[in-house]
């Protein structure tokens, strides 16, 4: 590989290195080549970096490189991967030829500097390009880049458009320029672009407009046809014209020949990004963040499928039916026919970890026949999101058929009960069979307040359970609760729920609905309690010195994992706006959910 020299500045540099590698060293050499190529692809200014093998001489490999400039190539020589890998690879091979060259013809297909590189055999390339004054659009850009990374084999550059300050911008106002300034070569380099602007007077910012004006004048117009694009924006407030700005952004992109797409998914309750991520100021809550990541992932899917020819990345297959049919109890529902739901969810799924896999599935059951907890949508949304992070697929439903039909339930590896109340299902056989097969059950907050003898499960009256099923599964049942109050929660770290739990303090003050139960699970040796309440710090506790709040167990011959957390009455625990309280409640829940996913 050696360093070429004697190359001119500012013009694309093409480097060709011909190497002979003895047969017995080829495996090792190619392993290093793979690492070198994947790191080199991430470098600024690298337009192509490919290893090809001679069809005539099996020991002959040719490295074909193209760089934006000499400076970029020089920077490549100083990278850790070049410095470590190249001497080792040179030691195992003989350099037959090393050529440095420049384009001989002034024309090329679409003037696209990356033409000629087989898009099928390299990573997809995504540019997240944005403008910002006060940093909000920059945060969206970072989340979109995170979303892109959820699909494997994607390289991503995040760049901010340059441009002088406007006269109205205070000199002391600092733009968020934590990312490098964009060059036109970034646009040439990319297969797909997510382009974000602050909403300014219902349109795109002057700097963003200037960037594309100048790109056009520099000869860029006509060079980007067929690339994929999507738009995003930060607006001052809901209804401030964000959609108009996103559409105005798309108008510019379409003028340049980009293919723009919409997104049908609902990423939260009453929340979608049909026209791109339209965020009021900074993306703060879980729904906003999920929306931005979703857009990045979808862009990657489009690029993976249409540009890189990857069938498994096709958005048709990766569509997230659970999000698309977001359907919550207590809300007039767009009812989803079960067969549609089943069909959609049986499509191969690209998990958030980026592996193409048949994801395992969890049924999130939200039926509330009696008391309706307001936090249920936020809770369901959080659980869905977490399951996706684990590489699972979640389906939210309040249709009891899913629990009563053995055939339907058999499609799920885990059942998650959220805030249920009243007679939420009648036949218990399918659920018992699910457990017999070693599949898990999770319950959150009022889940175990289902099947009570009273109409008012709000807690004033002491309730008696009318069904044994939850007692059999969770080991106890809801009895009542005193009013919401602050109390001291203590943690027990001697458990199998994994190391993340230790990020919760051993004791913390917490405001919640603290339930009393029909039985104290501390007395059940099959149950491990992970969080408990110090009743001396609250009023109305009936459990005594050892008041359990969250616990787990394994039941049946197949040791089906069961986790229950009574914590988590409020929506703010799940939408990220609840501060430390939110963090502790969700960390405990995440540990239990993970335990049940891993052991189901
Ligand atoms: C000149 C100007 C015009 C704006 N026009 C709008 C507007 O039409 N609608 C709106 O919701 N916000 C408007 N805003 C507010 C910005 O869109 C909002 O503050 C945004 O979060 C800024 O993003 P940034 O932090 O990435 O710069 C405007 C701001 C400026 C400076």
UniProtKB/TrEMBL annotation:
SUPFAM superfamilies named in the record: Class I glutamine amidotransferase-like, Dimeric alpha+beta barrel, Flavoproteins
Gene Ontology MF annotations: electron transfer activity; FMN binding
Pfam families tied to this protein: ABM (PF03992), ThuA (PF06283)
Ranges for domain ABM: 13-101
UniProt cross-references to InterPro entries, sorted A to Z: ABM_dom, Class_I_gatase-like, Dimeric_a/b-barrel, Flavodoxin/NO_synth, Flavodoxin_CS, Flavoprotein-like_sf, ThuA-like
Gene3D superfamilies found in the cross-reference section: 3.30.70.100, 3.40.50.360, 3.40.50.880
Flavodoxin-like domain sequence ranges: 126-300
Full protein name: ABM domain-containing protein
Organism: Cylindrotheca closterium
């Amino acid at each position: 590989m050696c360093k070429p020299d004697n190359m001119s500045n500012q013009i694309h540099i093409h480097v060709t290195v011909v190497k002979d590698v003895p047969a017995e060293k080829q495996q090792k050499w190619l392993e290093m080549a793979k690492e070198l190529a994947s790191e080199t692809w991430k470098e600024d200014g690298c337009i192509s970096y490919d290893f090809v093998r001679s069809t005539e001489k099996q020991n002959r490999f040719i490295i074909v490189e193209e760089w934006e400039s000499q400076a970029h190539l020089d920077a490549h020589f100083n990278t850790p991967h070049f410095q470590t890998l190249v001497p080792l690879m040179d030691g195992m091979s003989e350099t037959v030829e090393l050529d440095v060259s420049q384009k001989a013809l002034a024309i090329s297909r679409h003037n696209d500097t990356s033409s000629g590189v087989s898009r099928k055999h390299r990573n997809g390339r995504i540019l997240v390009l944005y403008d910002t004054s006060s940093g909000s659009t920059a945060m969206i850009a970072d989340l979109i880049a995170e979303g892109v990374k959820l699909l494997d084999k994607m390289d991503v550059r995040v760049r901010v458009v340059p441009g002088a300050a406007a006269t109205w911008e205070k000199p002391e106002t600092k733009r968020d320029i934590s990312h490098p300034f964009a060059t036109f070569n970034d646009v040439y380099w990319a297969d797909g672009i997510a382009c974000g602007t602050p909403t300014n007077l219902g349109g795109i910012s002057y700097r963003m407009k200037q960037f594309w004006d100048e790109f056009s004048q520099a000869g860029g117009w006509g060079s980007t046809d067929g690339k994929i694009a999507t738009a995003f924006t930060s607006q001052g407030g809901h209804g401030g014209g964000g959609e108009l700005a996103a559409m105005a952004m798309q108008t510019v992109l379409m003028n340049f020949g980009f293919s723009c797409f919409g997104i049908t998914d609902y990423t939260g309750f009453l929340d979608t990004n049909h026209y791109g991520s339209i965020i009021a100021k900074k993306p703060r809550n879980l729904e906003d963040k999920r929306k931005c990541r979703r857009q990045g992932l979808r862009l990657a899917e489009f690029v993976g499928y249409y540009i890189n020819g990857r069938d498994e990345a096709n958005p048709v297959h990766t569509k997230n039916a659970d999000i698309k049919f977001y359907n919550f109890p207590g809300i007039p529902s767009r009812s989803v026919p079960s067969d549609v739901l089943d069909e959609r969810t049986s499509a191969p799924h690209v998990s958030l970890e980026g592996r193409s896999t048949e994801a395992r599935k969890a049924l999130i059951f939200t039926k509330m026949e009696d008391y309706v907890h307001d936090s249920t949508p936020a809770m369901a949304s959080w659980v869905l999101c977490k399951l996706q992070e684990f590489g699972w697929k979640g389906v939210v439903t309040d249709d009891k058929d899913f629990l009563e039909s053995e055939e339907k339930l058999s499609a799920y590896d885990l059942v998650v009960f959220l805030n249920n109340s009243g007679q939420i299902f009648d036949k218990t056989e399918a659920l018992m069979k699910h457990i017999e097969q070693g599949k898990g059950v999770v319950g959150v907050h009022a889940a175990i307040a289902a099947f009570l003898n009273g109409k008012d499960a709000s807690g004033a009256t002491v309730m008696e359970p009318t069904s044994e099923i939850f007692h059999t599964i969770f080991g106890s049942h809801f009895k009542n609760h005193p009013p919401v109050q602050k109390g001291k929660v203590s943690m027990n770290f001697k458990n199998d729920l994994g190391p993340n739990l230790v990020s919760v303090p051993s004791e913390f003050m917490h405001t919640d609905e603290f339930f009393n139960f029909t039985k104290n699970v501390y007395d059940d040796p099959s149950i491990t309690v992970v969080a408990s309440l110090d009743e001396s710090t609250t009023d109305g506790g009936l459990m005594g010195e050892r008041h359990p709040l969250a616990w787990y167990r394994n039941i049946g011959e197949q040791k089906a994992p069961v986790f229950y957390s009574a914590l988590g009455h409020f929506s703010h625990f799940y939408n990220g706006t609840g501060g430390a309280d939110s963090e502790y409640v969700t960390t405990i829940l995440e540990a239990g959910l993970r335990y049940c996913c891993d052991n189901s």
